[in-house]
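Lab notebook, bench 4. The sequencing result for the construct came back, and we need a structural model before the next group meeting so we can plan mutations. Quick request posted to the team channel:

Model the 3D structure of this chain.
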Amino acid sequence: MAKMYYEKDCDLNQLNGKKIAIVGYGSQGHAHALNLRDSGCDVIIGLRKGGKSWPVAEKDGFQVYPVAEATKAADIIMILINDENQAEMYQKDIAPYLTAGKAIAFAHGFNIRYQQIQPPADVDVFMAAPKGPGHTVRSQYVAGKGVPCLVAVEQNATGKAYDIALAYIAGIGGARAGVMETTFHDETETDLFGEQAVLCGGVVELMKLGFETLVEAGYEPENAYFECIHEMKLIIDLINKGGVAMMNYSISDTAEYGEYVSGSRILPYEQTKANMKAVLNDIQDGTFAGKWIAENKNGRTFFNSKRALLAKHPMETVGAELRKNMLWGDDADPDTASN
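Done. Here's the predicted structure in token form:
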């Protein structure tokens, strides 16, 4: 079993006297920064001058600097901007000021795994990766809980990289839930696979096809939305709490029987497994990374067209109207999405 760490294994004092620069103030960035500050850490924010997040971070009470200045001032630099923008910013604003003994950190291993970023040998390189969206990292921390995290160390130049990484994770609340040790290599490949095959690619396609099948058969789109999309959260919350067994305990025997007789008809075992292995192979050999890097260099034509098509899909438009008419429909705050 993978090695696990908890609050008793983490010493926040390892961060005493260290200035932490959070680069980026989006979903993960705001959560890390606010949680670390609430844990008593010295936090500054590094952003692109004139970016829309600058006034947001200032409003939240942080000192905000251009990335290069934040890197110069900080002992730990956590990069929390989008994967596709990290390499360029690193080369321009971080690498020239990444002096010996500092630490550079990531919440996802993409740019280290695929060598888009290659830090010098005299700095620590670690990962503190919450297994949930940034808004959940924040809301769970505020509630006195935490989101489970992964920890990995790629370079241990100072000999204290693991201590620093675990302290950082404790600071964002992850040690309250549990911290699992991994590597940049394994985190990157399993994370990409999970997103593509199950959590995002797989689940969204499954919901969309279910919705379309019911609507094309003549059922009301609103009914199709509730049955194939809205209830997904209720099912996943049960699985998250007690596994598939708890979900099956909580649903009807009719539903459980349907699970056994129809699940493999929807996702034929051998073909689905073969398709998943093909996706994993593309991740392992760098094919996916190469396509994504090229997509960003070439104007994101495919990406943007797919996003535009999804926005127009009845699954999205019907869902938006339904949510407006529900008692909870005026709650558009992602910080409460897991509550």
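The domain at 4-182 is CATH 3.40.50.720 (Rossmann fold).
Will bring this to the meeting.
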